[in-house]
């Protein structure tokens, strides 16, 4: 994994702590952005944020460009940046 490859670690304990969520069944973001009659992906995205917030991470990283369309709503669900 690229995070591990770019982390200077001499032992297991030197690596970053992270959790990766790949929720492939979320409805297509682009479909919804272009046509609001399509399934809204916000509900499952929000459920993921709420669920992962219980783990008290330092931050969230959302690599999906189209998921950023919902960033304001998602950020309102958690104090975690």
UniProtKB/TrEMBL annotation:
The organism's lineage? Bacteria, Bacillati, Bacillota, Bacilli, Lactobacillales
| UniProt-recorded name of the protein | Aspartate racemase
> What Gene Ontology molecular-function terms does this entry list?
amino-acid racemase activity
Instruction: List the InterPro entries hit by this protein, alphabetically.
Output: Asp/Glu/hydantoin_racemase (IPR015942), Asp/Glu_race (IPR001920), Asp/Glu_racemase_AS_1 (IPR018187)
Question: PROSITE patterns of this UniProt entry?
Answer: ASP_GLU_RACEMASE_1
Question: What Pfam families is this protein classified in?
Answer: Asp_Glu_race
Which superkingdom does the taxonomy of this entry point to?
Bacteria
